[in-house]
Amino acid sequence: MSVFLAKRFAIFVATLFGASVVIFLALEILPGDPAYAILGADAEPSAYEALRRELGLDRPAVDRYFSWVGGMLTGDFGVSYTYSVPVSELVVERLALTVPLAVIAMALTVVAAVGLGLYAAAHHNTIGDWGVMVFSQFGIALPNFWFGILLILFFSVYLGWFPSGGFPGWSAGTWPALKSLLLPAVALATVQAAILARVTRSSVLETIREDYVRTARAKGLTRTATLWRHVLRNALIPVVTIMGLQFANLLAGTIVIENVFFLPGLGRLVFQAIANRDLVVVKDVVLLLAAMVVIVNFVVDLAYAVIDPRLGARDA
Amino acid sequence: MNVSRRPGLHTLALRHRSFLLGSVLSGLVVLLALISLVWTPHSAYELDIANKLKPPSPAHWLGTDHFGRDVTSMIMVGAQNSLVVGVVAVSIGMAVGVLLGLWASAQRGWAEELVMRFSDFTFAFPAILSAIMITAILGPGAVNSILAIGIFNIPVFARITRGSANAIWAREFVLAARAAGKGRAQITLGHVLPNILSAIIVQATIFFAIAILAEAALSYLGLGTQPPQPSWGRMLNEAQTFLYLSPHLALFPGLVIVISVLGFNMLGDGLRDLLDPRLSRTRLAGYSSR
What we know:
heterodimer, A: 316 residues, mainly alpha, MetI-like fold, 2 domains, 13 helices, 79% helix, B: 290 residues, 11 helices
């Protein structure tokens, strides 16, 4: 087990390092001169020189890379060019929206998908199973931003139950804040639940055919008890893998959904930063999002080892 | 003696519901794009402010947008855009990914490890994130969104190619070819590639659907196709401003996206069942990275 963990940890660190190098190369080296990229080609020479010094571009690239990564690790994200405030302040503020949004969406995804998947598998080849498969087929084809617009159209424009966008902040109270996150979370979750429900269904159907399940039934265990005690745990292994990938994509998906619902989260921040050519913010937020994706995948690997002890044993 | 024969591929295809429905839906979208090359009900670019935000009518089947442009014509021309982005992005992903996968499988050892770690690594950058980086450097545009989607496709194609190719390398006829003195490159081109082609075609169809979705999302965000070229994603973005006045504008482009994605997905499912039944799980693996 420890060999397995050590191996995964080494890959985790290497991926993080690789991601930071790629982002640095892409956003600091490829544009040629970030100062020009920010100011535009017709910039005043004095403004250009001042910005170069401010961004530390007079120092060698390797130096800049290490001070950037070192800063990120210690919480010093640099100063935003457009907002003139520390990027860490901007990020912390936005994370208070993006992370709860992704977590609510993931919770909705898991509850809906595992429920639907189990139901479909338990009612294999019935109209209910067919209904779940049709939902899944449509859900996979649904662009989440369009579904978000449809939700606004129905629940905000016609029924007036939910705000059509914006975020009052957590200081306005938990319920108003949650209320403005609910539609975006549903828009994010529906597509992912459609995918996960299929994975759950096929995984449960596969597990049900295993010999040990037949043995459990033969020794007198009821159908429900077998399903909960023997089938579910084993069927969860592929489900957890896909869930990990999905959480990563929910984080990325928030970039789109935050723009649909005008939510001031990390996605909107990076988006505005691109419009303002604020490369300092773009670089930091992209690394942060990539790091979150990598961390989630690492946690999934760990969860994997817990659910399936064979995995750790094989590597050890 | 009565010999029962396995029905031919085209007979099976005609009986396969998903394949048939998928072919019809994706065929419709392709047809729409082709027709728009020679004919559209109105110009998709011409502004007619006097007739702005009109609901569907015999003159404008799906109504007009805030500039008075005909929505039907814009959707038809938008189909060209989605299909071109899909074809080029999938071709980039397929060309590079398949080469990497074949190389990894033929070399094994460090080469395989390198390709697999590279593809693990690229999972840290979901399509939208790489698109954001690319646009931050190069600016928004159709070409850059094609690049972003194409790059995002590479690791998945590499993984699938390597997996399928490894299975072929373990077969006896490959052993026979090696015994006959054929080199790795010769075996890869002569034996491995032809045997995994169906798996690659299936994957390409499914990725085509994912590419259409990704292009729509990027255009919606303003990172993809730029005005005045109509695109489904941007039509939805513009429609959102007029949601209270003209909700119909937000319906049709989204419906066309769903129909195209559904069509190519079902076509991919059908092809998979017909060409390579062993591949039943790969589609979801690809989709989870959306």
